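Explain my protein.
***
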Amino acid sequence: MLSYWEKSSFIHHDLIVVGGGIVGLSTALHFQLAYPKKKVAIIERGLFPSGASTKNAGFVCFGSISELAENARTDSQNELLSLVEKRYKGGLELRQLLGDPNIDYRPVGGYELDFQGDLHERMYTFNDWLKPLFNNPVFSDARDKIPAFGFDQTKVKGLVKNQFEGSIDTGKMMEAFARKAREAGVQFYTQTEVLHYVEQTNGVEVAVSTTDGPLQLFTVQLALCTNAFTKTLLPDADLEPGRGMVVITKPLTWAPPQGTFHYHSGYNYFRNSGNRILLGGARHLDLKGEATTKEGINILLKEQLIEDLKSFIAPQRPLEIDYAWSGIMAFGEGKAPLLLHPSARVHAAVRLGGMGVALGTGLGKELAQHLGATTS
């Protein structure tokens, strides 16, 4: 049973954002900053964000050579260059919005492991292609660092560095984002699940399930920022879920390689987190099985990641796996994220393609600007 105060202060909003991840936080924050007198609320079904925003590896990246080459099979050069620009500038937007110290940004560079020994020959083509965007060479030959990183040189035959990539602390990033949104005036309703919504002439009625029971909220505009989970509310959206798994070692007695690393066309990745190694990916080994919104651990993928770790990343080094987790991403026919407007009052920002850290802030800002343009 609601009190008078609850009915007068917590039920009606100018904007409800569904999803408390990077995109949802960015949408709510940018809209609230532009319209400080409007009432903005974020609804999140979990205690923490339920997708990949708090479960990613903390890479600020835009694509390795082999990943971009694979994307070029389906996308035109202009489309791919536009996507790289969005990813790169999106990472800059995130850093500028929250501040490097608050997210523990480290410009450690991104490295791609080469198992054939010819990747360095392709970097000149990609540097020429990316020159209009960066004005400086993006990729450089880093084969001389293989011994220092401790990789198995019989398997890792080449290494290419991307000087424009780095790492963040994902937990600190999400804390800083939420803190900034709260300071701006955004309200948060966690452990609250949106069941369905009904459009009315003057707004949208949103039915939610809470720990206290069902509730009806009302908003002038509704923004769906739940990535793969958006299909529950927008079943026709062009996106499919993709689960990503991460394992992390126990603290090591030796110094792990410093940087962010990619291999197998970007499907696999690892980095140091303090004196641990965080390793994730391998979704390509079971794309059908990982096309799910259910959290869980795929044993096939976990075993392969551990094998990679012991085989060529840190061979003959003492290490133990501490634990593993998974996060849910969204993919589709195209690589670019989607802004959807199924009606004048209902909108969605989805399909980050595993690049939520790079794309989420900019996509949320873009949606907030669209919402502002339709605000009376």
